[in-house]
Amino acid sequence: MAGIPSSFSPIQLHNRLNRPVWIGFKLARRGKRQLVLLTGGDDSAAKLSKNFETFVGQIVREFKLDPEQTDFVELRQDKRESEAEANNWFRWHAHWVGSAPMDCKADPVTSDAARNYLEDVLTRNTAAA
Fold first, then answer.
1. CB within 8 A of 86, min separation 6: which ones?
2. pTM for this structure?
3. Segment 9-55, tens digit of pLDDT
């Protein structure tokens, strides 16, 4: 669970090699849509870039989320940069077949308004899981 920010709830999932790993999770709702914030922390076995399909499939099934109404955003923290620039956000896209994501890719969140919104969601005192 090393490196998971306190604003996330740690949850244990299985990575693509079926090893249990801890990732940071936060769920926010806005109307009918859900926003899932994820972070892998410092554990290289929990990298979302290699395990996104495996992780979100488990999350969708466990939390009974509608993948068509859910946005998945990853926080990658760069500890070498200043605090203001330390959070790098990536929005994940997938083609869904039932609860199984396919053809997944991540795009950086570059809009200042979107980044500010995500920072606000991250710091809200709502239950993360």
1. 77, 78, 79
2. 0.86
3. 999 999 999 999 999 999 999 888 999 999 998 888 888 989 999 99
CA 108, CA 46: separation in Å to the nearest integer? 19
- Phi–psi pair at 122, nearest 5 degrees: -60, -35
How far is the C-alpha of 60 from the C-alpha of 70, rounded, in Å? 9
How far is residue 33 CA from its own chain's centroid? 15
pLDDT value of residue 86: 73
Spell out the SS3 assignment of 21-82: EEEEEEEEEECCEEEEEEECCCCHHHCHHHHHHHHHHHHHHHCCCCHHHEEEEEEEECCCCC
For the CA atoms of 84, 72, 74, 8, the dihedral, rounded to the nearest 10 degrees, stands at 80
65 neighbors 36 (Cβ within 8 angstroms): yes
Q: Which amino acid, residue 1?
A: M
- pLDDT of 45-83, one tens digit each? 888 989 999 999 999 999 999 999 999 999 998 766 555
